[in-house]
Amino acid sequence: MSMLRFSAHVNASDPPPCNQQYPIWGIRESVLLKASAFSNWRSNLFSFHAMVYGRMIDGLIAARKVANITQVELGQRIGQRQTFVSKVELGERRLDAAEFVKVSRAIGADPFDIMRKAELD
């Protein structure tokens, strides 16, 4: 049985060595630094997608209210708690594509229509 080992630095003010291995993840710090250097170019792409996603969730909320379905009822229809629905509607939890379709159909709305409207707005 292997034990997880954490290396302690002799002096707390000394930075860790550049190629320090993180035993939990099994990757080196230098790999993490290289990956973070490329993350900035993605932020511009996500801003448009975040707006469309937000409008899709707004469409789900509007459809739920038009159908006169409470968060509790929707949660029961999809096999989740009311807190799940609340977190989705507040943007604290994201839905993947399959979940979006499931929630839309539980409301009685056309998921593709909601997506089309969100993209055009």
Summed over residues and divided by their number, the pLDDT gives a mean of 76
Order of strands, widest sheet: 1-2
Oligomer: single chain
Can you tell me the overall shape?
globular
Radius of gyration: 22 Å
How much of the residues is beta strand, in percent? under 5%
Sheet/helix structural class: mainly alpha
Order of helices and strands: EEHHHHHH
Biggest sheet overview: 2 strands, antiparallel
> What percentage of residues falls in helices of 4 or more residues?
55-70%
Quote the distance from N terminus to C terminus: 57 Å
The total count of strands amounts to 2
Low-confidence stretches: 1-10, 25-45
Instruction: Report the total helices.
Output: 6
Entry keywords:
globular; two-stranded antiparallel ribbon; 121 residues; disordered N terminus; 61% helix; 2 strands
Summed up:
The protein is mainly α and 121 residues long. It is built from 6 helices and 2 strands, in the order ββαααααα.
Structural notes for this entry:
Strand 1 and strand 2 form a beta hairpin. This protein has a two-stranded antiparallel sheet with strand order 1-2. Helix 3 packs across helix 4. 61% of the residues lie in helices and 3% in strands. The relative contact order is 0.10. The termini are far apart. The chain has 121 residues and is mostly helical. It is globular and about 30 Å long.
